[in-house]
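Purpose: get a first structural picture of the assembly so the mutagenesis plan has something to point at.
Setup: two entries, given in the order below. No constraints added.
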Amino acid sequence: MDVSAQLEAQKSKFKSINVEKQVSLQFDLGLLASFDTNALEENKLKTETDNYLKSYTRDGTQLLINEIFQLPLTSVQDVGVVVELPKIVTAIPREKPLPKPKPPTRWERFAKLKGIKKNKKSKLIYDEEKGEWVPRWGYKGANDDGSNEWLVPVPDNADPFEDQFTKLREAKKERISKNEARRRRNMDEAETGETQKLENKSKAGAKALKKTELHQQISVAKTSTASLGKFDKPIKGEPSNTKGVKRKFEPNIGDIQKEKEARLNILNKIIDKKGEVLNVRKAIAKNHQEN
Amino acid sequence: MLKTIKPKNARTKRILKKREPKVEENVKTAIFVRGSTTSQVVNDALSDLCRLRRTNSINFTKKNNIHPFDDDTSLNFYCSKNDASLFVIGSHSKKRPHNLVFGRMFDGQLLDMIEVGIEKAITMSEIKSQKCSVGMKPLFIFNGDLFETSQVHKTFKNMMLDFFRGQNLESINISGLEYVISITATGSNVDSDSTASSTSDGKIFFRVYTIQMTKSGQKAPRIELEEMGPSYDFKLRRTKFAKEEVYKIATKVPKTLKPKKVKNIDVNEIGDKVGHIHVGRQDLGKLQTRKMKGLKRMTEDDQTEDWSRKKRKS
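Result (structure tokens, whole complex):
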């Protein structure tokens, strides 16, 4: 059976969707845009602007729609035919600059160090007592911390006259205030760049700083014994700390010659060459000066 | 400049969070301002453009003494107060009749702007036809090679795309492709160095049509257009381009949004998807093959030994 004739008849019923263009169009389907660089007929544009523009645009739109229909189409119920658009090619400037990455909080740093991963918890939790799904936290939530309990058993080791209800309430208040303090501390640290400081410490620039810090800490540790480190055994090769030593004493049993010389020098200083102890002239001058 | 507000309740906190910079941005808000003197043409044009951009556009009703090319402090203030990054300022003077200035902001500062004069305008209400639904994404057609060659036209193209593109969507319903904006540029190429009014011939035709899809017997439908919206004949006047470095920062794409590169998978010439598996080097001498005892190399003594052993067994 020759169906081609019927096909031709069918085709001729409808208008063509093909458009001939000298230079093929450029498309940016993410923006549903097409760019036509073909030359326009100037005289037609001047004489019958609107009609020419309409027909020209119709051709361009036809090509754009053909291109769009080449993209993957899916049929979504109640909505119709949906076409998946690719990413935008043309560079369009943003309205605000890219957000700066937030510095990690204390917990985040610790978790990263230990390799603790966050587990996403479901919002609703099955409450055995009520037999239904309630929110894990918040209004009519399951984790009430016992602050709204109607009956609280007194533990064995507790004072029988202690009010357990106020105890629970106080504990909750304390937890809230601690959490608030931590949150504020995190915010302040984020502002002042505390994490940046810690990150910088690991860099080479602060290595020298660490060395002096270390020396300081060693010297502090040395003098933190009961006798301020005076009778500690010195370690081999360790430079002894001569800080704070103000007077030097000669050893009691040493060179006798030296001792003799030192004592005679003192004597010579007191008794001068003429054999007199007191220099009268100098004494009078000094007395005169003082008065 | 606006002072930074510290949120005192959850609602203001939410508003501030909405306005802070994000990786994937919100739809840009546009403000439509009237200058100190405006003409009826300009007023109609502003209101029509506002209608085309129904959501996320704020229409200033009062007149403001604003000259964007001279002083942009008041403009920065309006935009940051309304959290807007696009603006249109309409004015009318003897020197510049029926003037419109399209512009963009980045990071609270002026990025670039283009001034056009309206030579012929037909408003939406004058054209009696069915209008498209509110808030649809338009199709764009840019005709003329000037949009590839001339710097001014390239900026204008970018600005028009930015102005009317609407939301960034991953997929769109076919029935939502309702209207098309066609922008045609004619005239000689404008050299940025030339100081003379070389745009005397240059015109930009701005037309908006609704799309009617009819059966075509094939997958894609046959398109017919019907003029819907405002129709303008623009004439380019002054422009202010964005600074290179600022534009570079503004068009930076964050790493997360860049398409991920899949390693080791290629598509060969025929069109088959081919993958590479990288296996380590193997020492072929130590490969385990099937052991065939008969092929084992034996000496004469061994052979006789074997035979004697076999005999003893049996």
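The two ends of chain A are 149 Å apart (CA to CA).
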